[in-house]
Design a protein that fits this description.
285 residues; 2 domains; 5-stranded antiparallel β-sheet; 4-stranded antiparallel β-sheet; 9 helices; globular; Oxid_FAD_bind_N
């Protein structure tokens, strides 16, 4: 196993070309923090910012936005440590064929030690969170994709609730009039209730009220057990949480585009046409 965690430096910043050269062990958040003083940021972000740059680029991780490419498309050049040819430097201009093989190479051609990334000017976004349902999403899919720079749907199982989150450039200080974000506060269970419900299923119970008050909604959800009937109730509570959280907020793109996934999750991935995604019927247990 190769651990690049200590290779975490920003090596060079070219403000004119908006490019940065970094070691690939640097984490996304560390990179963003390191270049914001130069007025730069990444073009797009995946949800989780604790990932190392080498990993997020080599697997072709993506953010949101129908017109924005996956993150590996931001790579201009790279330094590759190979078993046969030693350390080589490749770029779009000098070695296009090898570069495109290695650009999203999953580490199969060698260890990517350094990358030069095309950045963009740091930008503020206005985020809009709203509640919809599957039928409305089907009707408005094309419009949502064409009118928003970023967009995502959060479907809550055992409900007909779909959380719609769109983000666009914050221009001229203008935010729609219903701009007050109503971020719901929630404390659905006491410490003793969570500890009792969770005692037989978790090695990490919540111990006191201080712990509970420091948990986000999704972290609190992760402390609860996984009995199906209880999950249905939790999901109904989550749907209500999001209804109370409808509104707008403004922030830097690296702050807005991240997402609190909430600890342990089970993910299902489906590939479909972005213009007609509802041909596939998804069955849930």
């Amino acid at each position: 196993m190769v651990n690049l965690a200590l290779m975490d430096k920003v090596l060079e910043v070219d403000k004119e070309k908006k490019r940065v050269r970094v070691q690939t062990g640097i984490r996304v958040q560390e990179l963003v923090d390191g270049i914001k003083e130069h007025g730069l940021t990444l073009q797009n972000f995946a949800s989780i910012r604790e990932q190392q740059i080498g990993g997020i680029l080599q697997v072709g991780a993506h953010g949101t936005g129908p017109k924005l490419p996956p993150m590996d498309e931001q790579v201009i050049s790279m330094k590759l440590v190979t078993p046969a040819k030693g350390t080589i430097e490749i770029s779009k201009e000098k070695d296009p064929e090898l570069f495109y093989l290695a650009q999203c190479g999953l580490g199969g051609l060698g260890v990517v030690a350094e990358v030069t990334i095309q950045c963009v000017e740091r930008q503020e976004l206005v985020e809009h969170t709203s509640i919809s349902n599957m039928e409305e999403i089907k009707k408005n899919q094309k419009k949502l994709l064409s009118e928003n720079k970023h967009g995502k749907y959060l479907y809550i199982p055992y409900s007909d609730t779909v959380v719609v989150v769109t983000c666009n450039l914050y221009q001229n200080g203008k935010v729609p009039q219903s701009s007050s974000p109503n971020i719901a506060a929630t404390k659905p269970y006491s410490t003793s209730e969570i500890s009792t419900r969770n005692a037989s299923r978790s090695s990490d119970p919540v111990k006191n009220d201080v712990d509970i008050n420091e948990l986000s909604f999704t972290e609190l959800r992760d402390k609860l057990h996984v009995d199906k009937d209880h999950v249905v109730k939790v999901n109904q509570a989550e749907a209500e949480f999001w209804r109370k959280s409808e509104g707008y907020r403004v922030g830097w793109s690296d702050e807005i585009l991240g997402f609190d996934c909430g600890g342990q999750t089970v993910g299902f991935r489906n590939l479909f046409s972005s213009w007609n995604p509802f041909q596939t019927k998804l069955e849930r247990p």
